[in-house]
Amino acid sequence: MVKHRSSSRSSSSSSSARFFSVKAIPLYLIFIFAFTIWFLVFTSRNIQTDDQSQDHQQHHQHRDSRKNLQEKTSEDLDSQLWTPPFSYGLHPCVKPSSRYKEFIESDRYITVRSNGGLNQMRTGIADMVAVAHIMNATLVIPELDKRSFWRDSSVFSDIFDEEHFIESLGRDVKVVKKLPKEVESLPRARKHFTSWASVGYYEEMTHLWKEYKVIHVAKSDSRLANNDLPIDIQRLRCRVLYRGLRFSPAIESLGQKLVERLKSRAGRFIALHLRYEKDMLAFTGCTYGLTDAESEELRVMR
């Protein structure tokens, strides 16, 4: 009897254990499934966080790299802008050679009426000094252009240092401020020299001295820069442009003050010549952005 009860309890306990084990399987599966889902979510979130962190880091690195490149490029451009340009072996050419012939005192005179803007007049005056040297003539201080667009009434000494001009060219050509009284009333040969002419052309022009003591040149644009003139004549032109033609003391003083003011803030400055004056527009025929009335005004100027 006792054995039967004990056996019955043991059988009941075993059946109960099997029952609970069978019922627990779905719970285990649910738990495993839930844990798997949680693990995947947690892992993917960490991966995403790591990816975002890596992307953020790469973005910062790329931004820093781009910033450094921009700074380096800016520094390179700044260095290129302010560093003196490469000379390519070029050097000043104002010193005369050993074969240069100084002028011989002459009682023949050349008077000149310069034409064009300031720079054109400068180059024209340099040409006329060279022509006077070739033709062995005394040069009278040139008259500046008063008939062009601006109607400027300035004389040579208003713009240039007249005394310096005369003294600096003492070995090259004799320069006087005006014609001597004894030749003022004499007939003059009026001449428009051919542009781009050679030395031979100006040597031929010396035949005019047989009849005249004064040659008046109505325009100074002889353009001697690139027409196979002897090297000493080209060097003479350079001496006139870069040593002889110096601005008057008043202009030099004003220019120095302007430069000092421009340098006072950053030490460096950029000067820009727009070339947008009325006379330049009229000369080029450019009417971009102008009204019909303004275009007509420029046409009349031309």
Automatic annotation (TrEMBL):
The keyword Transferase applies. The chain crosses the membrane at residues 20-41. Pathway: Glycan metabolism. Residues 52-74 are annotated as: Disordered. Keywords: Carbohydrate metabolism, Fucose metabolism, Glycoprotein, Glycosyltransferase, Membrane, Signal-anchor, Transferase, Transmembrane, Transmembrane helix. Its main location: membrane. It is a single-pass type II membrane protein. GO terms for molecular function: glycosyltransferase activity. One of its GO terms (biological process) is fucose metabolic process. InterPro entries: GDP-Fuc_O-FucTrfase. The keyword Transcription does not apply. It is found in: Membrane. Pfam families: O-FucT (PF10250). One of its GO terms (cellular component) is membrane. Belongs to the glycosyltransferase GT106 family. This is O-fucosyltransferase family protein. The lineage of its organism: Eukaryota, Viridiplantae, Streptophyta, Embryophyta, Tracheophyta.
